[in-house]
């Protein structure tokens, strides 16, 4: 090898590179009596082996040059090779001079002055005033210290707290970031061919893994130990990742300290969203239960159930027979659960909920950065069973196509050749979301707004490719929409949770099985930290986590009028999601590199778009799919108790219709098939409702936006205090950046200096 091995006493290993070298297979000796086919096969094998050896040699040259170059960049190297020379570990660490140089170049934050922790979060203060015990609170030891900070400058080293302690001045995550940047910039081949960086070498196969080390095991020791003596990973496992902590606040300060701001922001946002789901779930459950309690007062359902053979309906298909409306009595009763005045109220509530939630997150996200940077039987008819079955098949196709769309979006984004990683990630995220939006929501949109709209009327049915257009079932489109939403949303959540629980364990088992021979060769020696971490699964990032929750947000807002229990199921899912994700990051993933983040990025723009779309979709859903407005018009014009409403919504088939001259169908038409005056009156009411609904909601949104400042006053004070301290510490002309408006904006970004997540964002 062309590099020198270092073994520096007291040096912290910041990063590990791993590669595997497999021994060559012995070629089979040439024997007598071999046929031509065998000789040809042997020749092909030899050629393949030759190509493989050339490839291995190329990778070895790249790897050696890369290691030479990172050593030239100042990193300290220590090679570790087990007894069986197949797996090679190269431990990397950055000395003080390298840390200081790159800390200034990367504008890392340096501490100026400690500041006190906030004593309580919002819920804790409210519970204390009400003299209610706070079961969500939990004492987590070794809470990180908050600091006012500014950009690091080597020339002002003496102004920063703890600068004399070279061993502990830079945090572990800062050291990881610096080494990661060096690895990302180091050339291993020709720069004009973009042969740069450890990530490219990983893709090429020169390295098998590159990761920072976990800080010890996550399991608690067998002997009794003081909580203050636990390592950071043990604290996160014991106080956060265990299922018994599902109702406790998340220790976001510790998450930020161990995993960095980007991952901490995800868990802060997920906790904040889950907390806001609680009132939505309570109201939605109350609306659903109120529908059960008032089901007996549903006059139209009573008329349907007591009609006997009074309403003879036209066949639903070409081969079907006429049917009596009383046959759908159970469906009419159950349908009331999803289409009563309470669901309309809930739609309005959820529209306000969505926009208010985002406004308050918009306020809290810079503050967080400043401080851290029931199922009912719906009948047993063949049509209903077919609808449920088709929904399940649809779910399977959705999940399958989701993988295809993600791969397509990745390839399209690569072709665009974005200049920065942020631009690449935003473009990729947007494409995947558009594909998945169509993938998941096209079926509910079809049922809600298109199915049954172009059927025509008896004798003049609409057709497509010679087939009669599809109509909704006897119970109406809304109950079919509720079935679709239940199966797609709940099915997706269950499948995702099973995957998140099982797949990492399967991957870890395969990794351990592949390394079993090496362990055996070590003769029962205790594996080192880097060997244990290599057995873990590579961290897959936060994209899939965000995508799952954002799609869930769409289900609970866009179609909530048809499925008021959606927030409840989302809440239950998210309680499990937090612990599943926490367990993955703490116990099953290799430690990711800590990344800075300004906010949740393009996901917030997508959430805002979904909240606005939900207002419009719910307005159309209430106006055109629900029976709320037809019932309201009938109450106003004819009968306030809705007596005769069923007959009001039915029309007689034209006399020319073959099946029956007395058959009826649901429409506002006369006997000639023309629309009646009531149809046009109802259309005007529907359009007026849509305009009024969206104007009211969006007007209230503007008021909320005006009332809730984007940057809280407490944060403004902290920014001023930090700016003042920075001005004192770095009082040079070249530091004018610190007092400029751009610097102030930076304080509300991921580069903000105070390093503790706000306790108001804590969520179990």
UniProtKB/TrEMBL annotation:
Keywords from the named record: Cell membrane, Glycoprotein, Membrane, Transmembrane, Transmembrane helix
Gene Ontology terms: cellular component: plasma membrane
Residue span, Anoctamin transmembrane domain: 255-363, 378-722
Compartment(s): Cell membrane; Membrane
Signal peptide: none
GO molecular function terms attached to this record: chloride channel activity; protein dimerization activity
Domain Anoctamin dimerisation: 14-252
Main location per the UniProt record: membrane
Chain coiled-coil ranges: none
Stretches for region Disordered: 29-54
InterPro entries found in the cross-reference section: Anoct_dimer, Anoctamin, Anoctamin_TM, UIM_dom
Record-annotated membrane-spanning stretches: 263-289, 344-361, 382-408, 428-449, 549-572, 600-625
Pfam families recorded: Anoct_dimer (PF16178), Anoctamin (PF04547)
Recorded topology in the membrane: Multi-pass membrane protein
Family to which the UniProt record says this protein belongs: Belongs to the anoctamin family.
Name assigned to this protein: Anoctamin
Organism: Astyanax mexicanus (Blind cave fish)
Higher taxonomy: Eukaryota, Metazoa, Chordata, Craniata, Vertebrata
């Amino acid at each position: 090898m062309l590099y020198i091995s270092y073994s520096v006493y007291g040096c912290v290993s910041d990063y590990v590179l791993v590669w595997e070298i497999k021994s060559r297979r012995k070629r089979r000796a040439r024997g007598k009596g071999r046929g031509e086919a065998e000789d040809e096969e042997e020749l092909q094998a030899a050629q393949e082996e030759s190509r493989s050896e050339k490839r291995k040699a190329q990778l070895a040259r790249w790897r050696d040059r890369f290691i030479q170059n990172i050593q030239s960049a100042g990193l300290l190297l220590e090679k570790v090779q087990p007894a069986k020379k197949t797996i090679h570990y190269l431990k990397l660490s950055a000395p003080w001079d390298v840390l200081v140089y790159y800390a200034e170049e990367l504008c890392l934050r340096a501490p100026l002055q400690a500041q006190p922790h906030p004593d309580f979060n919002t819920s804790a203060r409210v519970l204390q005033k009400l003299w209610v015990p706070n079961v969500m609170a939990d004492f987590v030891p070794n809470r990180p210290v908050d600091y006012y900070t500014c950009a690091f400058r080597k020339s002002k080293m003496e102004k920063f707290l703890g600068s004399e302690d070279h061993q502990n001045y830079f945090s572990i995550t800062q050291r990881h970031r610096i080494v990661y940047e060096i690895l990302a910039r180091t050339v291993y081949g020709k720069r004009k061919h973009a042969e740069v960086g450890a990530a490219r070498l990983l893709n090429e196969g020169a390295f098998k893994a590159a990761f920072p080390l976990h800080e010890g095991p996550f399991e608690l020791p067998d002997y009794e130990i003081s909580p203050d003596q636990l390592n950071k990973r043990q604290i996160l496992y014991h106080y956060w990742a265990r299922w018994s902590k599902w109702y406790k606040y998340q220790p976001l300060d510790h998450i930020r300290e161990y995993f960095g701001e980007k991952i901490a922001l995800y868990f802060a946002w997920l906790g904040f969203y889950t907390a806001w789901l609680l009132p939505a779930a309570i109201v939605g459950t109350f609306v659903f239960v109120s529908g059960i309690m008032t089901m007996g007062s549903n006059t139209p359902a009573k008329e349907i159930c007591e009609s006997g053979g009074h309403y003879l309906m036209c066949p639903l298909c070409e081969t079907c027979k006429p049917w009596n409306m009383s046959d759908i009595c159970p469906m009419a009763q159950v349908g009331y659960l999803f289409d009563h005045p309470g669901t309309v109220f809930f739609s309005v509530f959820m529209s306000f909920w969505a926009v208010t939630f985002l406004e308050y997150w918009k306020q809290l996200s810079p503050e967080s950065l400043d401080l851290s940077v029931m199922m009912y039987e719906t009948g047993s008819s063949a049509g209903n069973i077919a609808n449920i079955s088709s929904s399940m098949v649809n779910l399977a196709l959705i999940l399958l196509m989701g993988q295809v769309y993600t791969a397509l979006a990745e390839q399209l984004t690569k072709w665009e050749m974005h200049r920065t990683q942020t631009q690449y990630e935003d473009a990729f995220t947007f494409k995947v979301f558009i594909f998945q939006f169509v993938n998941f929501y096209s079926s509910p949109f079809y049922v809600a707004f298109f199915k049954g709209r172009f059927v025509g009327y008896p004798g003049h049915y609409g057709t497509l490719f010679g087939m009669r257009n599809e109509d909704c079932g006897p119970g109406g489109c809304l109950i079919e929409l509720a079935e679709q939403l239940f199966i797609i949303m709940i099915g997706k959540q269950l499948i995702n949770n099973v995957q998140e629980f099982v797949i990492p364990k399967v991957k870890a088992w395969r990794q351990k099985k592949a390394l079993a021979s090496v362990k055996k060769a070590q003769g029962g020696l205790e594996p080192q930290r880097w060997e244990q971490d290599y057995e873990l699964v590579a961290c897959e990032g936060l994209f899939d986590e965000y995508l799952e929750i954002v799609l869930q947000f769409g289900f609970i807002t866009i179609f909530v009028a048809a499925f008021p229990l959606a927030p409840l199921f989302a809440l239950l899912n998210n309680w499990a999601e937090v612990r599943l994700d926490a367990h993955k990051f703490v116990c099953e993933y290799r430690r990711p590199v800590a990344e800075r983040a300004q906010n949740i990025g393009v996901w917030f723009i997508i959430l805002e778009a979904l909240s606005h779309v939900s207002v419009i979709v719910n307005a159309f859903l209430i106006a055109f799919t629900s029976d709320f407005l037809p019932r309201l018009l009938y109450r106003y014009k004819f009968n306030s108790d809705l007596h005769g409403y069923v007959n009001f919504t039915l029309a007689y088939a034209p006399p020319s219709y073959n099946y029956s001259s007395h058959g009826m169908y649901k429409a506002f038409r006369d006997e000639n098939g023309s629309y009646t005056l009531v149809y046009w009156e109802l259309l005007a009411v529907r359009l007026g409702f849509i305009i009024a609904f969206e104007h009211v909601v969006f007007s209230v949104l503007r008021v909320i936006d005006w009332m809730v400042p984007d940057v809280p006053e407490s944060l403004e004070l902290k920014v001023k205090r930090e700016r003042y301290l920075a001005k004192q510490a770095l009082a040079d002309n070249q530091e004018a950046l610190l007092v400029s408006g751009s610097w102030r904006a930076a304080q509300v970004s991921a580069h903000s200096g105070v390093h503790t997540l706000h306790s108001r964002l804590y969520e179990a």
